[in-house]
Design brief:
The complex is a heterodimer of chains A (about 525) and B (about 450). With about 525 residues, chain A is of the alpha+beta class. Chain A has helices spanning about 1-20, 40, 50-70, 105-110, 130-150, 180-190, 210-215, 275-285, 320-335, 350-405, 410-440, 445-475, 480-515; strands spanning about 35, 45-50, 80-85, 90-95, 115-120, 125-130, 160-165, 170-175, 195-200, 225-230, 240-250, 250-260, 265-270, 290-295, 300, 310-315, 340-350, 405-410. In chain A, strand 12 and strand 13 form a beta hairpin. In chain A, helix 3 packs across helix 5, helix 11 (about 410-440) runs parallel beside helix 13 (about 480-515) and helix 12 (about 445-475) packs antiparallel against helix 13 (about 480-515). Helices cover about 65% and strands about 5% of the residues of chain B. A 4-stranded antiparallel beta sheet of chain B has the order 3-4-2-5. Chain B has a two-stranded parallel sheet with strand order 1-6. With about 450 residues, chain B is an alpha+beta fold. Classes of the chains: A alpha+beta (about 525), B alpha+beta (about 450).
Chain lengths: ~525, ~450
């Protein structure tokens, strides 16, 4: 008996603790830790799809030019290049080299990792390898995610949630409190803004604060310059850059992971002709200076110009392979974005969310009161036990909901109310069984024992079927509906515990204390059979 | 307690069930079940007006040029008026859904603006704006998405601002101003202007904060939050039933920090905000591809659940019990769907959730009866199956009724609660629970008897 009461007390205390435990950033015990869904707090939900096939086509198209140029710059002559989007391949015609007799093996050495190279006379076809193919498509989604993450701050949304479904080209965007679809659509559809600017010469790079950064200039921003924040989590918070933009996304043909002359990971960049000229002039006069890559007004990186450069160069540093890949994704998100489609868009105004929340709370309260009255009327003392169990049940449900960090949605509230009605079902089954045993002439103690024991199997069977249905809903449903399924599943588990274990404990405790001859389990006004 | 002869009267109830199922199937296949936008694709927009004078016909007339098949439903609200506009399966070119939905929403917003008399307010505010402040706002907003040097961006938007100011002097609608200022990019310019000069009643605290930080009227340190101001404005708005009729009233309620000049804030609000005459309370858009995917998932979920339950009951009981309960289940779902079609409600994601709940819940009562049947069959040496079935139903009758009653109580509460989404959801549950209780008494056990007589004995 003591064990039973300890279990119940622990369950309730843990639930209450989890439910009201102050989060890190707030110190109040008053607000329950229930995360509300967008349909209850208002906000924007979007499901996006990145056109990865389009990204692959872009890649093949740009590689047709880039492989050709790269070979031409390296003692090969190439008559022409073409690409076939359907076949996902690039064709180079008339490839010869005076210095390198084994053209095929030479091409395989250079491009074999990413392409299957085949020879037909002096023509070569490059078919993209599956590994590269899925990498390109995967990167396209990463770029879109990065772009959205980087720009979402413009909306002023405090907790934006951007989730990428695993192994999929779908992105889910949840912006609580946001209301302006127009602006969100703009962020989603438009490419990021990429600029290359020189860092102000002699400005204190690595200054720990903006005040330190501007100290040499008397605390004011010098003419012709601008302060830019950085995305890097540590290091200097801001840099002083020259106003003039040297390169923008339209100058960039390709960005790819590469290696420097010592074989260390680096970022390879190819510019178009105009960009190449600008870059030549810029780098010629500024060897030793720093050049900042700015994406959406934030500094991504500021490599030092080591020598005069033109349209093909690398950015190196002490990068790991992963850092190079990340940097390529970031730069590409501002220059070569893939098409993003909006599959689904839901905007819930803050007033609607508030109304739904209030109505839900009122409905839950009314439902609870009705069920409480009915149970107390129909089962008298036993009814009181079932009501106690019901209240425990609701506390446990909320505690588990908070503990799992599950989101409470409008259908979730419906599930909660439904649980109130369904939770007492298990008690009804037990009580009816006890009544049956009492009618057969069993003494209360025996009737209660048999009632709980035999009804348990039935309760399990009946609840497991509902659980199966809820589980299927969780697998297949989406958005707010998942909240309903989760609520139903939690409700079922809790109600088995409270209606069987807890109310049994109440009975046992009463029977042990009072040793009664009759049991108050009949409708009020009818004292016995 | 006297016994009721349920099994003996099974013919009559069987006939009733068959008639109901057939009637439901006829309804489902002839009248059909309406699909909501999440399964049909399209948009569903709910709009609220402060005036209760506006009626459904007015809304229909003004949205008819956006889509003449649009359905319009008036919602019950305590103040003003609220309408839901549903545009299903719009004819849209493949791959252009987002643009189409954007254009559709904008057209609808214009229709609402005209209807509520808000139409001229953007033009009015453009008329009193000078070139400098508009240039500054345009540069910050960057409606053309320019990606160029600062000088180019500055000069582009300065010339745009000059043209807008010039056009505002002669034109009286914001669309005409945008058209006159930059015919080529009129659409981008127009939506940019709408973002720069938002309606105060349709602005969120976050957005207001972001706009204030960008413009920084109180000269706070770079990047400092304006959340205090934004929160006060939104809080005050909530006291005015979500519509602001008097901007100066809002401003007088706002407190600035010590040493800040409130006049600057006042002029910022007066120059940048419109009073809105309508509110979009919700807006849902589903592309055709996601809609058909959602519908397919819904079917899969229902079938998967039925299969799972069939397997579970087969394991716990025998195949005969499982088939009888699935038949009862199909009976319940069909009749609930028939009732749904009869009433003309829409099949949506929450409704499918309700049907799945029926799938799970309507079995509870059936299992209670089946459990008793199994027990009773075990406890007798040579049971009379029909008699045992009937006795089992009678013995469990009170719990069947009481469990359904408690659940029915709360479902009625959900149904009566004013929320539209939830009452659509509660309706099939209501029908499902009633029919489920009926079927566990009158359908499941007779089916089990038919199985026993025709196919395989259930006595082991």
């Amino acid at each position: 008996m003591r064990f039973r009461w300890t279990v119940i007390a622990l369950a309730v205390l843990v639930s209450l603790f989890v439910l009201f435990k102050p989060a890190d950033d707030e110190d109040s015990w008053k607000t329950p830790n229930i995360t509300l869904g967008l349909d209850l707090r208002g906000g924007i939900f979007m499901q996006l799809e990145v056109d990865t096939v389009d990204a692959l086509h872009q890649f093949i198209e740009e590689q047709a030019g880039s492989i050709k140029t790269s070979l031409q710059g390296d003692e090969f002559t190439v008559a022409g290049s073409d690409f076939d989007i359907e076949k996902e391949q690039v064709t180079l015609t008339g490839v010869t080299s005076s210095t390198k007799p084994e053209v095929l093996s030479e091409l395989n050495d250079r491009y074999g990792n990413d392409w299957i190279v085949k020879q037909e006379g002096s023509d070569f076809t490059f078919k993209v390898r599956d590994r590269k193919r899925s990498q390109v498509m995967d990167d396209a989604v990463s770029q879109a995610v990065y772009k959205i993450q980087n720009r979402i701050g413009e909306l002023g949304v405090t907790e934006p949630v951007i989730t990428r479904a695993l192994n999929s080209n779908r992105i889910i965007l949840e912006l609580a409190g946001a209301d302006d679809v127009e602006r969100v659509q703009k962020i989603v559809k438009e490419p990021g803004k990429l600029e290359w600017r020189l860092v102000h010469p002699n400005s204190p790079i690595g200054a720990p604060s903006e005040a330190e950064l501007l100290r040499p200039y008397g605390g004011t921003v010098p003419a012709g310059t601008k302060v830019f924040p950085t995305t890097a989590p540590n290091g200097s918070p801001s840099y002083l850059l020259l106003q003039e933009v040297k390169l923008t996304s339209r100058h960039i043909l390709d960005v790819h992971p590469s290696r420097d002359d010592r074989g260390l990971p680096a970022v390879g960049v190819t510019l178009n002709r105009e960009g190449g000229k600008i870059f030549e002039n810029t780098t010629k006069d500024n060897v030793g200076q720093f050049l900042a890559i700015v994406l959406d007004k934030k500094v991504l990186s500021y490599p030092r110009i080591e020598s005069m450069l033109s349209d093909r160069f690398i950015i190196r540093g002490q990068f790991t392979q992963q850092e190079v890949v990340d940097m390529v994704i970031k730069i590409k998100s501002g220059s070569l974005p893939a098409e993003v489609r909006i599959l689904e868009e839901r905007v819930i105004g803050p007033t609607l969310g508030r109304d739904a929340r209030n109505q839900g709370a009122i409905s839950a309260a009314i439902g609870l009161v009705l069920v409480i009255f009915f149970m107390m009327f129909w089962y008298s003392r036993a009814g009181v036990y079932s009501v106690l169990a019901l209240v425990l049940n609701l506390i446990l449900i909320l505690g588990i909901l908070a503990g799992l960090g599950a989101v409470l949605t409008l259908p979730g509230i419906a599930g909660f109310i439904l649980t109130i009605g369904m939770a007492v079902d298990a008690n009804v089954l037990v009580f009816e069984r006890i009544r049956e045993e009492l009618k057969k002439g069993q003494i209360p103690k025996q009737a209660v024992a048999i009632g709980f024991k035999t009804a348990f199997i039935t309760i399990m069977d009946a609840n497991i079927t509902t659980f199966i249905a809820a589980f299927c809903l969780l697998l297949m449903g989406e958005g707010p509906i998942k909240g309903f399924a989760v609520m139903l599943m939690i409700g079922i588990v809790c109600s088995i515990f409270t209606a069987v274990f807890c109310s049994h404990t109440f009975f046992l405790s009463y029977l042990a204390r009072k040793q009664p001859d009759t049991l108050g389990i009949w409708p009020i006004g009818r004292q016995n059979v | 307690m006297s016994q009721i002869d349920f099994i003996g009267k099974r013919g009559r109830f069987g006939a009733l069930s068959i008639i109901l199922v057939i009637a439901s199937l006829v309804l489902i296949f002839t009248k059909g079940v309406n699909k909501s936008v999440d399964f049909a694709g399209g948009s569903q927009i709910t709009v609220q007006f402060p005036s209760a004078e506006i009626n459904t016909a007015d809304v229909r007339a003004s949205v008819s040029h956006v889509d003449n098949k649009a359905q319009i439903v008036r919602n019950q609200v305590s103040t003003g008026s609220s309408f839901t506009v549903k545009i299903k399966e719009p004819e849209v070119e493949e791959g252009k859904e987002a643009e189409a939905s954007r254009a559709r929403r904008r057209q609808l917003e214009h229709a609402f603006a005209e209807l509520s008399g808000e139409g001229g307010t953007l033009a009015a505010i453009l008329k009193k704006t000078d070139v400098d402040s508009m240039t500054q706002a345009l540069v910050l907003e960057n409606p053309y998405g320019l990606n160029d040097t600062d000088e180019v961006i500055q000069s582009t938007y300065r010339s745009t601002a000059e043209k807008v100011v010039a056009a505002a002097a002669t034109q009286d609608s914001a669309e005409a101003i945008a058209q006159a200022a930059d015919a080529e990019r009129a659409d981008q310019l127009y939506s940019g202007l709408e973002l720069i000069y938002p309606a105060i009643n349709r602005t969120t605290a976050d957005l207001l904060n972001a706009l204030l930080i960008k413009t920084n009227p109180l000269q706070r340190p770079l990047g400092d939050s304006y959340k205090d101001i934004a929160d006060q404005v939104i809080k005050h708005r909530a006291t005015q039933s979500d519509f602001v009729t008097d901007l100066s009233g809002v401003l007088s309620a706002v407190q600035v920090k010590d040493g800040e000049d409130k006049a600057a804030l006042d002029s910022f609000f007066n120059n940048r905000f419109r009073l809105g005459n309508y509110n979009i309370t919700s807006n849902e858009t589903f592309s055709p591809s996601i809609a058909s995917e959602l519908l397919a998932h819904a079917w899969e979920a229902v079938l998967l659940a039925m299969a799972g339950i069939l397997i579970y009951i087969t394991i716990r009981f025998t195949l005969g019990y499982a088939l009888a309960s699935i038949l009862a289940l199909a009976h319940d779902v069909t009749i609930a769907l028939g009732a749904f079609s009869l009433v003309g409600l829409e099949l949506s994601n929450p409704v499918v959730a309700a049907f799945l709940t029926i799938v799970g819940y309507s079995l509870n009562d059936t299992i209670v009866v089946f459990d008793r049947i199994r027990d009773n069959l075990h406890s007798e040496r040579k049971p009379d199956v029909a008699e045992t079935l009937n006795r089992s139903i009678n013995e469990t009758l009170s719990r069947t009724l009481v469990t359904s009653l408690t659940t029915l109580l709360v479902v009625i509460v959900i149904y009566v609660g004013a929320n539209v989404t939830l009452s659509d959801f509660a309706f099939p549950l209501l029908i499902g629970i009633i029919v489920g209780t009926y079927s566990s008494i009158f359908v499941a056990s007779p089916c089990l008897l038919v199985w026993h007589n025709r196919f395989k004995s259930i006595v082991t």
